[in-house]
Amino acid sequence: MMKSGKAAMMRMVTAFGLAGLAIALAGCNSTAVDEQPSIYSATMAKPIPADVYPVIEGKLPAATTQMSNEEAASQQAKLTALGSARSSGAISEAEYQRRLKELQLLAANHGADTLKQIQN
Fold first, then answer.
1. Could you tell me the residue ranges of all domains in the chain?
2. Are 64 and 118 spatial neighbours (Cβ–Cβ below 8 Å)?
3. Global model pTM greater than 0.85
């Protein structure tokens, strides 16, 4: 009796083992999924030669034009004149502070204002 019970148990374990294996393998099956094409497609890719170093020099385009030498000189002259007028007493301290605050606001907001112009 012991042998037949042991044999029956082995058949049962084998049957359940095979059924579990079949279920596990069924879960591994994959079906073809239609994927969206990548934004970076093969037409955008450039061939990369394997026998040379990449070229990394060169100028990148600027987001906006650079201040000219004349504009920089003009700004410097305005600031120098403002400092001279303050020290000579030609303008009051209140007027100097008003102009200084105006220039500080320009410096603080210039980047955000320029970005808005570029985005529009």
1. 69-119
2. yes
3. no
